[in-house]
Amino acid sequence: MADCKEFLSLYKTLGGQSNLTQQCCNYGEVSCTGSAIVSINLVNMNGTLPDFSKLPSLETLSISGKFGGSVETINNPKIQSLTLASQNVVGNISALGAYKSLIFLDLSKTNVTGTVPSLSLQQCRLTSTVCTDDTKVRDVCQVSKCTSDSTDSGLSVGAVVGIAVGCVAIIVFGLWLLLYRRKLKRTPTIVKSPPKTEMLPFMAYPNDSYIHVEQDIVLARSDSVIVDDDDMSSTVSLQSFTKSKFKTMESFYYALARHGLDSETIEHVRLIFFQEDIKPSQLPYMTDKKLRHLIKQLPVREKILRVINTDQ
Prior knowledge:
312 residues; alpha/beta; three-stranded parallel beta sheet; 30% helix
């Protein structure tokens, strides 16, 4: 009789008539085993879904109509068959995770959402608003697999797309950088040649007294130029010892032309001095010994030393 009293209360909550007697087991929509209610099948209900936890023997529950409420309020894990047919029913289907005896589930006409828990279902009809990662449940209920990236890790679809685009961009940039470095390795090294200029009229410089420079030892000497085949010593201007008489390398090349050196040889000397980065300030310290590794021809070396030492 306790179950019938509880049923009458639930029935009123669901919007049913209140003129039922205490003999609920004689009511066509209710099945009992002794005085315990084991099955409820109600139609055209328009109330609110109540709590069925006080019906411990209830195994089958089927309700249809326009009633509302949440699937979470049923609160009876002993139920083996559950059918709710109302678009006003909402809630998270994961609340049925404790219903380990549930073998039949029909929520296809509700608006429940969430992830279907791992249950031993044999028959199942669900709305498309739910999903599951349980392969067996997915096969029985014919629902889609939950997206792990958005459901489990908390990342939205936009975040996943952003990460994918970023990875592609990094890969493309890496390939471009690799190809660019290979291209640089294949590019031949170009030796820069000095700019060619027209030979301008040479400039005359006054002669001074000279000093003798030989193997970095400075000795006083008269104003004559010495070029010796043995030690290839040379003379430089005393004024040039501290400051070169040639303001630019071009003035030096003009002096070579004035002393009879042909243009082809001058261009050869220009290229060598350019590659060795010879500056005007270095010319007064130039000796035959230093010139030997640059210029092989002795007459050319003698001409260069003569210009350095006499064209003051």
